[in-house]
Design brief:
By secondary structure, this protein is mainly beta. It has 2 helices and 31 strands. The protein folds into 2 domains: 107 residues, Immunoglobulin-like (Sandwich), CATH 2.60.40; 262 residues, TolB, C-terminal domain (Neuraminidase), CATH 2.120.10. The strands form 8 sheets. A 4-stranded antiparallel sheet has the order 4-3-2-25, with no helix packed on it. Strands 5-6-7-8 form a 4-stranded antiparallel sheet, with no helix packed on it. A 4-stranded antiparallel sheet has the order 9-10-11-12, with no helix packed on it.
Amino acid sequence: MKTLFLLLFSLHVAASLTWAGKIYFTDRGSGRVHRANLDGSDLETLSTLKGSNLRGITLNPEEGKMYFCDNRSDTIYCADLDGSNRSPIITTDLGFPADITFDSISQKLYWCDRDNDRIERANPDGSERETIIETDQPYFLDLDPAGGKIYWGHFAIGSIFRANLADGTDVETIVSGLTTVRQVELDLVNGYIYWCDRNATPSRIQRRSIEGDQVETLYLGLDTPHGMSLDIPAGKIYWADTGTNNRPDSIGARSLCRGDMDGSGPLEVLITLSQPWDVTLDPTITNYSDWRQRYLPANTELDGLGDDVDGDGIQNGIAYALGDSLPILSVSPPALHYTLRRNVNDLNNLRVELSMDLKTWRHNDDGEGIVSMNFPAQGLPDDSFQLIRSEVVPPFDTAEQLYLRIVLP
């Protein structure tokens, strides 16, 4: 009887200086737009607007653009992701522009205008501007483009609404009884809606099933939680706490913070600022360093490839390279099935090795012939992982015992 054994791989990845994933956020207290790594390191100032009152921020990474609101001058700005080439794109008929978001499907910007009681949209250059909803004091919003819905919060009454994205019809209240809603974020993968309740006692971050269920409180004891962004693949929430309630013994006041989307992990205070107001993410991963900053706790000592930060028996390097799906074996024909992270620069030399005695290991690049054939599954171009079947070829496929492992030298 043929027996196959799987050994989890050894991994050695060279460090890379390339940066990718970043947090972008506004600090209304200092009149600045910042970015930093996803663990809060390497803080940069991208733009400074003296005398401003900066609010919402959103990204269009594919075009290398960011957009942010200033309700002192009632202006919406566009700039490159490094802060250069800043220019106003909406300058008229605004009254307290607050949250703003970009829909990559329709290529439209959406924003709340609190004082003019409406939600508007326009092209990224500000053209073809239109009002889609006239509603009292909208303040934060999020979109479900596939479901054809827009969600938003009210500035003062503690309710969250939704309507048809196309034309603003069929308005319904889906959450009520809160104190002061700030930020509305959708997890459409798992069916949750998240929000900040900044003036509750104590201030809190909460979630609920979009279609109605028990409200879950995730983080308590905050000062003034405001803008929020979800990193759904990593299971993380990022939020800005303006600190303007000045509550004694609060956690994370005047800081950019991070926690787990289910509230299970500790609150991480990433960066302390003046009055951070809104935050958005570019979660791109190009190497292990990016993955570590995004998925692992900041300042952990267990951040190496061979470490196991969460004690689940899976090394960090395995979780990075293969994701949540560990390799599986099939016997006829003998093959190893695994998912491999795509679009990174440090996994190009990953290989499958086999042995029949745990002493001699063979692979396709050792000059002694082909030992396995790879059959990648066809996926979508933007998939983060690719499924690969590595099938053992003759004469090794008839061995009574085979040991397989994945190695990146």
